[in-house]
UniProtKB/TrEMBL annotation:
Protein name, UniProt field: RidA family protein
Signal peptide from the UniProt entry: none
GO molecular function, one term: deaminase activity
CDD domains assigned: YjgH_like
Organism expressing this protein natively: Pigmentiphaga aceris
Domain of life: Bacteria
Amino acid sequence: MATRDVVFPAGRHALYEQHRYSAAVRSNGLLFVSGQVGAREDGSPEPDFEAQVRLAFKNLNAVLDAADCTFADVIDVTVFMVDPDTHFAKAWEIAADYWGEAPYPTATAVGVTWLSGFRFEIKVIAKLPEGAEGAAVQG
């Protein structure tokens, strides 16, 4: 079995160890990023919704940066929201601060009933820059 080429940001939050998953995996020129939430360093949710969305993007950007990517390299986005009728407009307004200029990545928004105490989660697939395939890192 091949070793996964995993990526973790510096100062990673405790959720990776608590729930046994990698922040991202590089494969065939792509970066597959696990869902990022507005988790504080100890893994607890940021209580304010707007601050939680901003922290989710900050955590996402830290993972992208660890793989030598930026949001400009993102080609596909999936967001999950608890109670999207209440939160979608505000989340999308905040996302615009991080999204960058057109052309935009593809995007799918999914309403869910549970996110383990969080209300917003974002997962992405990014194209790795040329030469960004790294050596496997132990999680």
